[in-house]
Every structure is written in C-alpha cells, then in structure tokens.
Amino acid sequence: MADPAAGRFFAMQLARMGGVAVAVYGLLAAAADIPWPDGLPRWLGFVLLVVGLAEALVVPRTMARAWNSEALTRKHTTDEHHP
Predict the structure, then answer these.
(1) Is 70 part of a structural domain of the chain?
(2) Are 22 and 51 in contact (CB under 8 A)?
(3) What is this structure's pTM?
(4) Stretches in the chain below the pLDDT threshold 50
(5) Which residue range(s) make up the domain with 30?
C-alpha cells in the first residue's frame, strides 16, 4: 500500500465492521438466541449492543479527525521546528 490514506480507510472500515459485529452479538445475546456464559445476566447483551454501536459510529469518525490532512500537516510542521 503506497497510499497511507488507503490503509487508514481500511482501518476505519475494520473498526466499523467490528462495532457492528459486537452490536449484533449483543442484540442476539439479549434476545437469548445464542449461547451465553452461565452466571451473567442477559441484560449485558444490551450493554454490548450500545458499546458496539458506539464503536461503529464514533470510533471511525474519531480516527478520521485524528488522521485529518490538515492535522497531520500541522503536526509534521511542528515536529520539524522542535527537534
């Protein structure tokens, strides 16, 4: 991958897909359709659902802001002036 933006895009999509997978697992766990560890309440599935949705929606946006071209340019310019 010669283009660093392609790698960043792939990382954001991977984070998004991981969040969707966690959200789906949480929803299925809350609905009692999949195996669940004994002793854990089923309502924790809803917690997984919320965490997965947050991961799918917030994390890629945060990554994009961190990797913004202007922010990277400012960081490299600042690093060059302060050894």
Answers:
(1) yes
(2) yes
(3) 0.75
(4) none
(5) 16-81
